[in-house]
Amino acid sequence: MTTLIKTADFIESVCDAIQYISYYHPRDFLKAMKHAYDIELNPSAKNAIAQILVNSKMCAIGKRPLCQDTGAVTCFVKIGMDVRFEGDMTVQEMVDEGTRRAYCYETNPLRKSILTDPLGKRINTKDNTPTVVHIEMVHGDKVEVAIASKGGGSENKTHMRMLNPSDSVVDYVLSEIPHMGAGWCPPGIIGIGVGGTPEKSAILAKEALNDPIDIQELIARGPKNAEEELRLELYDKINKLGIGAQGLGGITTVLDVKVKTYPCHAVSKATTIIPNCAATRHIDFVLDGSGPAEFVPPSLDDYPDIEIGGADANVKRVNLDTITKEEIASWKMGETLLLSGTILTGRDAAHKRVADLIKEGKPLPDGVDFHKKFIYYVGPVPAVGDEVVGPAGPTTSTRMDKFVETMLADTGLYGMIGKSERGPEAIASIKKHKAAYLMATGGAAYLVSKAIKAAKVLAFEDLGMEAIREYKVVDMPVTVAVDSQGNSIHHIGPQEWSKKIAEIKFKYI
């Protein structure tokens, strides 16, 4: 018997699913993160995990995005052979319409990051469409949908290689993970696709990220096949690299490793690695013709009761409006700061415009003065209600590395705030100018936004989320990631913790 799926039901389900995953973490992720928190020995990494978990509960209560990068939508649709769709919209069109409604939702608008004309003008489509849709025809009379909203920071850390049949997948993965840095916001999940053709291995890896976190259950019962053996070996060896939460060094780098395989050519072994960040936005649903999918909110009891820092936390309060180079010189790598005062914002596009103006000998826009200021690499979610800003977590800092010398040398900037590591060029410039790079926690966007008490656009309003803004902040939590002497916690932390983990001598974390 043929099942009729109404267009309105499909579109509504996609919209509701995207909204749901924007503010609710999966229960398995919460459980895995609590385990990571409990076993973490590095105070900086433990604090980062705590911020992610506290942020998660805040988002569940406030129904606001877990991360300011609300992602690009990928949708896997399995259509039963006995299914018929009402109307004349294609599956791509229905997914796009559901996405459009979700990202333009009045009470929880999501950040639109999709650009058209990628080789040319790169113009924002303003509704986060088009999406990427993978369609498969299967037996049955239902439609199965797996949908994810994945941020650019983790997506950009994808690696793919055509391995020889005799090459080791373990060796390849372990060679690439350290080069991913912290821009993918660990701890998270690593998806690995092996086999098929190049594009098939990438799809396998992306699809694997939708599978439940169950590594602890696998450890308890033991592997049953080659895929599970690979998962266990990589889970153990990746965590022993000591990269840790946010790349600060620590016990847990990955919460799980997921593997999918497909038959391949005799002379090939296509392998793709895709990490999933701490936002981990995905959900599955089934349509059987009875109406739109229903999504049951998790219980607040599913969220661990965790306090960030506490009375004994070693933190230093900083007034950015009276900051001096002497005070910056006193900061030590790994130290926790609570920032209050004025900061400016700017990302790739704003930095490019500023650099071009400086190169041409032209003045900066009226009101833009970086002298003795810190710049925050952020592209916030639109504000709603009485919010000053929407979720406003940091973006990957390495994209701005090539602008650091210009900003520090020619604008009087004192430092930067972002996420993940800095490259050698940026670190050398920071050391040269006795500046500092501070790291906010990726995956704690709503938590960070609550420290922002006032905001206004100063320049480049046409850039939308990438405009230069002025923020007034109170007790914004950050970690000193690169101090004025050029010491980088993202370089030193993992080295120290890989040695400590080796001394602990446990098999699985």
Automatic annotation (TrEMBL):
The lineage of its organism: Bacteria, Pseudomonadati, Pseudomonadota, Gammaproteobacteria, Aeromonadales. It comes from the Bacteria. Belongs to the class-I fumarase family. Its cofactor is [4Fe-4S] cluster. Residues 12-284 form the Fe-S hydro-lyase tartrate dehydratase alpha-type catalytic domain. This is Fumarate hydratase class I. SUPFAM superfamilies: FumA C-terminal domain-like (SSF117457). It holds the Pfam family Fumerase. Homodimer. It catalyses: (S)-malate = fumarate + H2O. Keywords: 4Fe-4S, Iron, Iron-sulfur, Lyase, Metal-binding. GO terms for biological process: generation of precursor metabolites and energy. Residues 289-491 form the Fe-S hydro-lyase tartrate dehydratase beta-type catalytic domain.
